[in-house]
Amino acid sequence: MTKYFEEIEDTRQEGKIKYILVEVIVITIVAVTAGAEHWNEIAMYCKSKVDMLRREFNLKLENGVPTDDTFQRIFAIIKSDQLAKCFVNWERSIRDIPEDKIVSVDGKTICGSRDDNYIVIHMVSAWANKTGIVLGQQRVDEKSNEIPAVPQLLDLIDVQNCTITSDAMSCQKKTVQKIREKNCNYVICLKGNQETLHDDVKLYFETAEKEPGFYPLSKTSTLGKGHGRIEKREYFLTTDVEWIENRDEWAGLNAIGMARSTRIVDETESVEDRYFITLLTDVQMFSEAARKHWGIENNLHWCLDVNFDEDNCRMRKDNSGENLAVIRHIDLNLYKSFTKVKLSMKAKRFRCSFDDQFLCNVILNKFC
User: Fold this and answer.
1) Are 290 and 276 contacting, i.e. CB atoms less than 8 angstroms apart?
2) Would you place residue 169 in the very low, low, confident or very high pLDDT band (cuts 50, 70, 90)?
């Protein structure tokens, strides 16, 4: 297990190193998998499980376990990009993403990291919808936003021949160009940050709706019922894009699309229209990608908040907050990948807190 993190540079002063860096990272992963959420909890758990950690994970722990302050100091100085890269390399070495699958890219703010003296931590993640795992993450620079972070993230991960979905923040020419360089398709939402293009596409579909015989539209729809509501989703796609100004500057732009969601809750109807640019020309593929983008919100961001209480995490000193976010992504992947028992993620995490053998099975199922 330690081999995946050996590339991380140890910047501590030689002669004063008491705890091996890769061992500290490994026992932190184990502790968070078992339910620890703060440095004091991580330290307490590891101190109570020294024998198990040595036996099951082949760790020496010659000087025992660090204190909570030492855990924080070590993670504060670990270069976050190196830990994130090790995470990506580990995922890449053990998993192949099938071709033509959907990878969603979106950002999440760790609200608890907000403070007058610290910049809030905002992470952009890539999420494989079918397997339900995180492929990689990139912290947004404190002086920037998601726009440059998305191409940086795409450079880290291996997503050849996938379809990338993203919200309007990624509707940038450089981002689209990076997606094409990765040999990927894309479905990207349009909003006010590309005001002219958004308004033009919106006007196109409004006009096509009024004059249906004159515009070449493909259409598909779905109908869902449950939880006291009815939701109809309609998807429209057209390859009639020659009229778009500066179209050639948008790499691979083959079509524009619209998704209309009509919800009826307690006899009250609401309608929402969303607009997209895409390389896809098949309306069924477009509708699937547009619909599944919400998986990153429901299955990643929601899980991190509910199961890991991430939004209330106050860890933020130097790199410690970002590095712990990477650890949470590692653990989320461990839970998702352990399918030998049919339990919810919350139940798996709870069982890991008291069942050492189950905990080892969850972790070593991936780190093999």
Assistant:
1) yes
2) confident
CB 23 within 8 A of CB 30: no
* pLDDT reported for residue 113: 46
Structure tokens given for 305: 């908040």
Tell me the whole-structure pTM to 2 decimals.
0.82
Of the candidate ranges 61-65, 111-115, 121-125, the one whose mean pLDDT is the lowest: 111-115
Could you give the CA distance from residue 79 to residue 10 in angstroms, rounded to a whole number? Answer: 9
> Is residue 264 a contact partner of residue 251, using CB atoms and an 8 Å limit?
no
Q: What is the pLDDT of residues 291-315, one digit of tens each?
A: 988 878 777 777 777 777 665 655 5
Question: Rounded distance, CA 333 to CA 363, Å?
Answer: 10
3-state secondary structure the chain: CHHHHCCCCCCCCCCCCCCCHHHHHHHHHHHHHCCCCCHHHHHHHHHHCHHHHHHHHCCCCCCCCCCHHHHHHHHHHCCHHHHHHHHHHHHHHHCCCCCCCEEEEEEEEEHHHCECCECCEEEEEEEECCCCEEEEEEECCCCCCHHHHHHHHHHHCCCCCCEEEECHHHCCHHHHHHHHHCCCEEEEEECHHHHHHHHHHHHHHHHHHHCHHHCCCEEEEEEEEECCEEEEEEEEEECCCCCCCCHHHCCCCCEEEEEEEEEEECCEEEEEEEEEEECCCCHHHHHHHHHHCCHHHHHHHHHHHHHHCHHHCCCCCCCHHHHHHHHHHHHHHHHHHCCCCCCCHHHHHHHHCCCHHHHHHHHHCCCC
